[in-house]
Every structure is written in C-alpha cells, then in structure tokens.
Amino acid sequence: MDFSTLVGQLNAGTILPEGIVIATLMVVLIGDLIVGRSSARWTPYVAIAGLLAAVVALVPQWDIAEPVSFLGSFSGDTLSVVFRGIIALSAALTILMSVRYVEQSGTSLAEFIVILLTATLGGMFLSGADELVMVFVSLETLSISSYLLTGYMKRDPRSNEAALKYLLIGAASSAIFLYGSSLLYGLSGGETRLGAIATNVAIAGLEDSIGIVIALVFVIAGIAFKIAAVPFHQWTPDVYEGSPTPVVAFLSVGSKAAGFALAIRLLVTAFPAVSDQWQFVLTALAILSMVLGNVVALAQTSMKRLLAYSSIGQAGFVMIGLLVGTQAGYSSMVFYLLVYLFMNLGAFSCIILFALRTGTDEITEYSGLYQKDPLLTLALSICLLSLGGIPPLAGFFGKIYLFWAGWQAGAYALVLVGLVTSVISIYYYIRVVKMMVVKEPDEMSESVKNYPPIRWTLPGMRPLQVGIVTALIFTSLAGILSNPLFTLANDSVDRTPMLQPALRVERALMAIAHPNPVE
User: Fold this and answer.
1) Rounded to two decimals, what is the model's pTM?
2) Cα separations (Å) of 145 from 46, 108, 109, 111, 505?
3) How many other β-carbons are positioned within 10 Å of the β-carbon of residue 403?
4) Distance between CA atoms of residues 85 and 73, nearest Å
5) Angle between helices 43-58 and 78-105 (to 10 degrees)
6) Neighbours of 336 (CB within 10 A)
7) Is residue 76 a contact partner of residue 82, using CB atoms and an 8 Å limit?
8) Most buried among 148, 203, 240, 251, using CB within 10 Å?
9) What residue stretches are annotated with the NAD(P)H-quinone oxidoreductase subunit 2 N-terminal domain (predicted)?
10) What is the DSSP letter of 496?
11) Domain ranges (residues) in the chain
C-alpha cells in the first residue's frame, strides 16, 4: 500500500474539529507553562474560541461524501456531528461558568481547562467511534479526565471523597464494559469493527447463544453507568454534591450526551440480532430511572443533589427515544439533548452564581431571592420550569416529542410512566421557584438578607453573566422557535447510514399498516 492510498483510507479531514480542540489544548497548556498563573487572563477565551471553531468546523461535515475514516475506526456521519457539537458547546458554556469559581478556589484555571478539553476530546471521539478499541480508548479518555475534574478542588474533603467514589465505581464499570467487549471480540472471530461484529455473529449463528446475551448485559452496564441510569446511578448524588459545580454541569450534559451517542452506535450496530433483549433491559432501566430519579428528588434539600436526581430522571426520559428505535424516536433524543444542554447548564450557572455570593446551595436559602437579584431569579426560574416541561419553554416541546414518538411506536407503558413522573418533577422544580418569588420580605433567608451588592465587574463574573444570559435566551426562545432544531434533529437521523436498516423496517411496517388507496 503506497502512501497516497493510506492517506485516502485514513480520511483524516473527518476529525478536523477534534484536531482544533487538540491544538487549543496545546496552546493553553504551553501558554500556562510559559506565562504562569497570569495566563488565566486569556486562556479561558482561547479555549472558548477553539471550541466554537470546532463547532464551526463541524458544519461542512454535514454533507461529507465519505464519513468513514481511519480504516473504519471513526464515523463522521451526521448523528456524530450533532453529538460532537453538543459536547463542544457544553464545554464552552462550562468554561464560561468556571472562570470565577476556579479562581476563587485558589487553584489553577489553565490546568482545569486543559483537563476539561481532554474530557471534551474523549466525548467527541466517543460520539463517532465505530470500533471496539476506539470506543474503549475514547471512553477512558473521557472517564479519567472526569475523575480528575471531580477531585480538582484538592483542599475540599467533599471533592476528594466524590472523586474517590467516582473512580472506584467508574473503574468497576469500565472493567465490566471491557469484559463485555472482549466477549464480543471473541464471538465475532476476532473482529473489532462494530458492523463486522454483527455480520460475523450472524454468519456463525450465535444470535441465540448465551455468550452474546452476557456480552450485551455487560456492555449495557457500562453504558448505563455513563448516562447515570438506575441501578447504576449510585455515584451520581454524592459526586454531584461534592464535585466542583462547573464539573457537575459538564458531567450532566457533555458526558451524558457522549454516553447516549455510544448507546445508539453500539446497540444498533453491534447487537441487531438481540434487539428484543436489549430493548427489554433498557425498558426496565428507563422506568426505574424515571420513577426513582423524580420521586427521590422530592426529598432533597440541596440544589445540587436535586439536580443530580433530576438528571437520573431525565436520562429515563431520553431512553424512551432510544427504545422505540424509530425515526421519530432517535430524532426526539437528539432534539431533547440539544435543549437540555442550555436549560441544564443555565440552571447550574445560576447555582454557581448564588453559591459565589452566599456560600451555600441549600434550597431554603433561596427564599425571597427575587428582591435582591431579579436576573438570577428569572434565569433560574425559566431553566427549572423548562426542565419540568412547562409550556411554551424548550423542555415542554422536547418532552412532547419524546412522548409522542413513544406513543406512536406503541410504548404506552413507558409514555404513561414518563407523563406521571414528569408531573411529579414539576412539583419539586416549582417548589424552588415558589421559594424565590412568593416569599414576603420578612420571610427572606439569612443568606438573602446578607446578599452582597451585585458587581459584574469583578474578575471572572462577566463570562458567568454571558453564560447565564445565553442559556436564558436560548431556553426561552427554543420552544417558540423550535422548527430549526426539529429539522436539524430529523435530518441528522435521516442522513445517518447506520440507522437506515431500522428506518427501512419502520417504513415497511407503516406501509403495511397504512396502504395507499387504490386509484
């Protein structure tokens, strides 16, 4: 094989966005080594510019002629483009909310950004990984960076405890996932590409073997840990409460999006022969996640723990789209994750701002906040109401799309559980909003009574303000102007070759159920 043929087969232009993130990471790392702590004045903006440039570089890849690169290891199809964009945008918003938080803690901002960019890189590669080795290396890049970020505030005992719990449970889940992958490798006769694995398993007639079922269970366990689905959610509340809040924000959106991208690619491509089995398992996980996440959230007194259980419930909602396996199902997943990015990160930005000004995240301490900080009250209220699915906000349309896709596909039990638990979730979201806006002046909490003067000119506060306002605007308008996002989500599914066999089956069934009338 000559060099030009090798270059053509590598098709390295597909990973241009990841290349931009790597270049940005190196600039931040080397700049910090040369300049020192004073680099904090410019490194966040370089990192944000690099991430936004990576998002822009994803746009031409929408219509790329040959999405497969690196000899089949990576696929730059439209579905991966959307998920990579979500992860890059979540990292950019996380950096905006991190500047003041990290500087106030006395730790290095540039090092924090470098680790965050590494996690972003792992998530972006994981979104397009189409081969077992690539999947595992990307997954570990994301996971190990997440462990480091969780324990980044090394002077805080809660951060150290959260990092240790996350590391121990995460290492166990990685080992389980790797064992499932090794079983797949053996059953397929030594294949690592996901499509070839499914083909070889079918040729060998192993669709009904116990080995493929064990591999499926182990792989689902690894994926469920990453998306924080019950019963693999045990790390979530403690890690969310003890970790630095910007890290929690990234884990709740960027890491979760990468997990769902992996779930779609791995289950649809490598396990088509046992689709009934994995749909049965994921149905149980989705119901448990929706029920436990939303019910236990009712009893929480900390905003971070409340959002931790909320994210478990949200994972259950998104799994409905994956389970139905239709065009509308996959599209509703993509749409919901797009709007979840802004409403969830907006809520975390508000929690960071309140914690910076008061030193607490207890729900009762938000009492009467509207009298001292109207912008924070408005932004947090809009984001929480959107997470609860109140119209006409973005979250309402996201949930309606998910539930409609599930109902259309006949998943009535899932949709009914989703509707009931969604109503339950509205209670604990509105409880926080009521705490902020309904209380009388004499019912203000001590933290609000002693609320410091609002000064956006302090170092690092302006990026946080930009992040809050951006999330507020998008969450408010995305519901009313949702058509472009619907189109984006539908096109990303329609143009993805991996999903076409499932969509062809769906269209054939629809044609049988609704035949065209005879002329």
Assistant:
1) 0.94
2) 20, 16, 15, 11, 40
3) 22
4) 20
5) 170
6) 25
7) no
8) 240
9) 12-99
10) -
11) 10-270, 273-518
